[in-house]
User: Fold this.
Amino acid sequence: MHELVIVLSDLYLPPAGEAGEARHPLPPGLEHVARFASRVRLDAGWRNWVAGWLGAQSAGNVGRFAAATVAARPVLPIAAQSAADRAVNASVWLAEPVHLLTGLTSLHLERRALLRLAPDELAALASDFRTVFEGGAYELLPLATGNFLLLGPQVTQMTTAEPARCFGADISAGMPHGPEAGPLRRLSTEVQMWLHDHAINRARSACGEPPVNALWFWGEGAVSAVPAAQAAFVLAAGTLAFGCDAFLAGLYARTGAEVLTLPAQLDGVFSYPRAQRAVLVLDVGQVLRSNSQWTLGDALAQIDLRFIAPAVQSLRAGRLRTLIVIANDWQLSLTARDRLKRWRRRLPGLGGLQ
Assistant:
């Protein structure tokens, strides 16, 4: 394989020097990458970088893709008629099911908080939303990636925050804000009241699953921009994508290709005989949710064992030419020869990703 990209999609860290999670040591493979790779800061985030890497935008026309606009492509053609009728003058947001933690004076988001719902849960909540908020300005549409798309009135003066960037903080900083944010903020509050003691949550609690007590709206974009943002493009031969991410699924919706299920370990990627380049979008929170006792360090160790350390070994063995790891808005690029850079000092904890 020529090139492998591993994206840790929700790994954002506090500034260097702050206490807390930064104390966790990097596992061996990730530590090697952080120590010897060349580094590029991704000011526009990993999604725009992946769009360019796949060929969805040219080097001379690189703009920021709205996450929800891209994610909208697979679902809007089959949206409810009420949504389709007003789609020309509408905005879209990603609506993430979350489990907020209650503090003494505020609500908080932690790394296990982003939930991925089963298709029957998504369908039931979307249907009930339509009933409870009948006549309202918003439509909730299920996505195959376990979250929702929210369709509503067009806005131009509002900003939201990606939930993964708000881990460990008071959620007020991540709420919609701007001159037109009032209606969406009110909807957010009403949704929390609607979800309280919802039948879906009673069933989840009975199964030991955390309840969905809020929807986090973010990634706003205009529906009218969907065709332009999602114009068909041709993937380079042998290009594969793995993961469960709404943005990635939206990018692939017009290529005729399919986003593949993430394998249990890296060998599953190399098992595709025609694979020349591949991108893997990994969710650290999903790994954390698989074991309630694990810390961030434990989750990174699992990801390292299954994907990153084997990729480093593949570089050394000549099975792979270039490994790129994207985390915390850094692009870390590594080739087999980069291990000869012995002067690179080892940074403590997660410092290599800050």
Q: What stands out?
A: DSSP finds twelve helices and twelve strands in the chain. Residues 243 and 262 are 5 Å apart (CA to CA).
